[in-house]
Amino acid sequence: MKTLKGVIAATPTPLNADLSIDTDRLIGHCRWLLGDGGCDGINLLGTTGEATSFSVEQRIAAMRAVAQSGVPLQRMMVGTGASALADAVALTRAARELGFAGALLLPPFYYKGIDAESLANHVGEVIAKAGPFGLKIYLYHIPQNTGVPFVAEAIARLRERYADIVVGLKDSSGDIAFSRSLAVQFPGFDVFPSSEGSLTEWKSSRFAGCISATTNVTGALSQIAWSDPDSEKGRQAAASAMAIRGVLGGFPLMASVKAALAAMTGDGGWERLMPPLRRLSPAERAELFSRLGKTDFAAQHAPATAG
């Protein structure tokens, strides 16, 4: 049964001083997100989680630590995309064997101009080699990063061949019209836009929820918008969430989300990023919090800092 619905946070990956993954802090944050953080689910090791900056071994070790922590995996999808087929297979197999509710699969992103049939065949190879039993795949459409879109034709082929396995898509393109068109074209296929602004129209547009980096900060507000989208309270909550999102998005997003979490927790370690990404400069940080001071950011709860 598919259980991934609603407000899903694309969680950042906290780092130790030596740039290894701080699994204790990661597990603590996941627990907070699924509780007081207001989220229905988590996208672990995606773009916000800097996944492609880690080795396959690092990613699987983090997945295993989370799986062994007792965090409810039926509420978690995990990024398993990689440019190399064998790496995508290893990560997707690990997600299935560890019991995550879904694998979020990037397209093979080095070679561009891939046609729909070749893209569908790639996903098919991942499914065959990772093992289809119990596997649920969510396609990750983020063409501004990958240069390889999951076009409707490729999705149609995958749905024809693997309807019980390829069950949804995260649309991080920012093109809400594309999200709407997929939800209409493929009934039963779970489409997740990447912005809290979509939450007030999830019923009319048939969205399964949203998967967003900024719901690490706006989760409680976003949950109000998701749970009560037709009310004035829901619309106001969505507007407040989008105001915070707009500020965070005005800076390098991974750095700004981590800076916000550092401020919310009082834990400066949250600001570490894997090269080539960098933390905000002092001037950028000052400007970020000056702008956040004009939103409802200060009213957000502080997340946990340890496992």
TrEMBL record:
GO terms for molecular function: 4-hydroxy-tetrahydrodipicolinate synthase activity. PANTHER family: BLR3884 PROTEIN, DIHYDRODIPICOLINATE SYNTHASE. SUPFAM superfamilies: Aldolase. This is Dihydrodipicolinate synthetase. Keywords: Lyase. It holds the Pfam family DHDPS. The keyword rRNA-binding does not apply. CDD domains: DHDPS-like. The active site is at 140 (proton donor/acceptor), 170 (schiff-base intermediate with substrate). Belongs to the DapA family. InterPro entries: Aldolase_TIM (IPR013785), DapA-like (IPR002220). It comes from Mesorhizobium amorphae CCNWGS0123. Pyruvate binds at residues 48, 211.
